[in-house]
Specification:
Helices cover 61% and strands 11% of the residues. The protein is mainly alpha-helical and 106 residues long. The longest helix is centred in the last third of the chain and has 28 residues, at 78-105. Residues 38, 40-41, 43, 45, 58-59, 61-62 line the site of zinc ion (ZN).
């Protein structure tokens, strides 16, 4: 699979996830404003467009990552995605700590 095909899959998944969110809002307008803590990215996100995988509720943004990850064969389960996200979170934290140190050294 080349980059262009991968990009196409991600774009398709974004469109699918966006549609799921719109459907949720149409069905239950409150879901746009009902907030939950996504168990994958750890951020507070609206219930609209969220999906439960293996008993784990993930936000609409993570649905895109999950579906694209499954389609591209990069992850096998939602736990793989959570693990990937954790690494990313760690990376973000490391950057933040480094930045903090630079500021304090000045
Ligand atoms: Zn999320």
């Amino acid at each position: 699979m080349n980059k262009e095909e991968e990009l196409k899959i991600i774009e398709d998944m974004q469109a699918v996830a966006q549609q799921m969110k719109l459907d949720d809002i149409e069905e239950n307008p409150d879901s746009e404003f009902d907030i939950f803590e996504c168990q994958c990215c750890g951020e507070e996100k609206p219930l609209a467009g969220s999906v439960v995988y293996e008993g784990i509720r993930v936000c609409n943004d993570c649905v895109v990552l999950a579906e694209a990850g499954f389609a591209l064969g990069k992850i096998k389960s939602i736990k793989d995605l959570m693990k990937n996200m954790e690494d990313k979170k760690l990376e973000a934290q490391c950057l933040f700590i480094k930045q903090d140190q630079i500021e304090h050294n000045n």
